[in-house]
Structure formats: C-alpha cells, structure tokens
Write a structure and sequence with these properties.
Layout: E1 10-13, H1 23-38, E2 42-45, H2 59-69, H3 93-105, E3 109-112, H4 116-128, H5 144-152, E4 158-161, E5 168-172, E6 176-180, E7 189-191, H6 199-209, E8 214-218, H7 225-235, E9 241-245, E10 249-250, H8 265-270, H9 275-284, H10 289-296, H11 308-312, E11 324-325, H12 330-338, E12 347-348, E13 354-355
Parallel strand pairs: 1-2, 8-9
Antiparallel strand pairs: 3-4, 4-7, 5-6, 10-11, 12-13
Helix pairs in contact: 6-7
Bound molecules: zinc ion.
Residues 112-114, 138-139 line the site of zinc ion (ZN).
Amino acid sequence: MTRNLLSSVRLRFAPSPTGHLHLGGLRTALFNHLLARKLDGKWILRIEDTDQSRLVPGAIQSIIKTLQWAKLDYDEGPDLSGQFGPYIQSQRQAIYEAHRDRLLETKQAYRCFCSAERLDQMRQEFRRQGSHLTYDRKCLQMSDAEQARRLSEGASHVVRLRNSDAPVSLNDLVYGQLTFLNNTQDDAILIKADGTPTYHFANVVDDHHMRISHVLRGEEWLSSTPKHILLYQALGFPVPQFAHLPLLVNADGSKLSKRSGDVRVEEYITKGYEPEALLNFVALMGMNHSRHQALEKNETTTSDLMTMEQMTSMSFRWIWSVNIAQPCRSQSLCTLINSTSAGACSRRSRNGFVHGSCAPAHSWSRIARPARCRTNTSIGCCSQ
Ligand SMILES: [Zn+2]
C-alpha cells in the first residue's frame, strides 16, 4: 500500500545531532522544502538522536540556527508547535515501546539473547563463507517458557524483526523501480539492549506517526529501504513515497569530507556567504553541466562528475572552486523538482536534458556571490 501522492503531503528533514549541518544536509533540507512548498504540503524538522553516545552538545541549536539562516522554514519542529510532536526522538520512547510490544505479541519480532561474543563469532563465520548475513536466527526457535525464564533473570537482549525471504519492491522517485532480493537480509535489530530503538525502527515509527507522505533522503539509505518497507508491512503502516538523493562527493568520488574542502555550512556563514548563494550552489549539484556542454558541442562524454572547475569555466560566472563533484542522476532529480516546484529548471537543451537553476523562480536564479570575501582559501572565494 502506498500513500496517495497528493493527499496531505508531509515531508521531513531528520538530521542527527552528531555534528553541525554540512552541505549535503543543507541540500536534503532544500529538496524537502521545495517539494513541500510546491505541493502545498508541510515539512517538519525531526531530530534523530537515538544514538545517544554520538550526541554533540549544542548540535540541535546549531542545526536550527543554520536552517533559519538559510531561510528554509519548516512548519513543525522541536522549537515550534505541532500536533505530531515531540520532534526529538529521545522524547518518544513510549511510542516505540508500544510498537515493540505489538510486534512481539504478533510474533513479527522476537527477543534475541545471544551474547556479543557469539554474534561476533557468527559474523566472522558468515564472512568466511562469503555471506552478508550476520545472524543465524537461533533465538527465533526459543520457547516462550525459556524466554520468560531469561527475562525473569534480567538477561540482556535485543528485539529483532522476523524477516521475510520474499523480494521487496520499491518505486523510488529518483531510481525508479527496484527489487531487492531479501534472502541476504538479516533479522534487523529494532530495540537495542538498553531498551532504546535503533535508527531503523524509530525512523519508520516516527514517519508513520508524523504522517510523512514523502521521504526524501540521501542515497546512503537506499540499501536500508527494504528493511524499512518490511517494517512498514509488519506494523501495518502505509509505505510513503521514497526519493533517494544522490550524494555530494569529492572530485575523486569519495565521501565528502572536510579534508577535501569546507563542508560545514557554518564555515560558509562565517566567511560571509549569502544564504541564496549557498542554496543556489547546492541546488545546482543536481545537474550535469559538463555532459550538457559536451552534448552541445557534439562530443561524447562518459564522465558523470561535475567539478567546480567545470562549473566555473562555464557561462554561469560561478565564483566557487571548492573541490566537490556530483555523481549525475540529475535528469531524474531535476525532473522530480521540476514536476513539483513553481519555476524550476527553466531551460532545457534540445535533447531535453535539463540545465539552468533547479530552484524556484525567485531569487535563486541570481548569480551566486558571497556578501564579502575576507580570505582566499581552498574554496577559491571571490573574483570580484
Ligand atoms: Zn539470538
């Protein structure tokens, strides 16, 4: 079951407060904002702090401040009212426990009492066999009496989803129709030994309770999506529309890191960049100017990377030279926003490939220019 695309459109941006907002996060927030506004829907800010060991003090306030600076105004969030709160996951424990109990009662989840040592040995053995599995489902066979005995002794345990071997299909708004063979999936842990939910469990439960209709998130979550769909099914929830956004990467294709340039939005704020400039930049990281340029010259190219050098060499007069590139799935990305935003993708090439600013019709069509430029650093800064 899939939610109707246009009925009560609600999206969410759900960062973890494990650090400050980086360019990739800003871009995901921007796409959520665009789609929500175009479809006359709402988008919310949800803080996913299930991994308490990685919390960074002040990170929540920093994320909120950065979104405010970028003028990406969400409708509900930790600092706003809303009927689906609280909007910080650590304050929603009772909701997760209720759904955990429901899954245990219906035998769609089970308790696993295996020790860390046993799981580690099993993981190594599976690896030796060339398998991606990490768990042998031993505890699925445990009798209710044995479980009750262990619980009465206070034995440490996690709660796992009882997986199905059936393939999982997904019609992703960017990737299209995908089918995942499910016999390579483990019985995912839903509740950790300390009783708190894993990212996957909290994410699905919250998306349902917050009535999320479209999940726009980075493509690093694509491989987890079958797990999430199985959870939606087990809980009897409708499955939202998914759109997995290609990631910003370094020019060599590696994960975007601070080593290769400035990635924290706050660094651009400190250097005096205007929010419109930075939004324009990350919005453009959804297209492939290099391919379009080559096509115009009747050249062929196999490159799917757009570097800042290529961008600055083009007629857009971009002043950026940060060493960031973009794997191109731009056509589908731009189509997604074009089909949903007011003035997006205003120009098209003769072959239909989109270029120009993939952004609303208003101020983002301006040339990106920092408000002031104090230093000439690795990001190149301005050539005013
Ligand atoms: Zn077990």
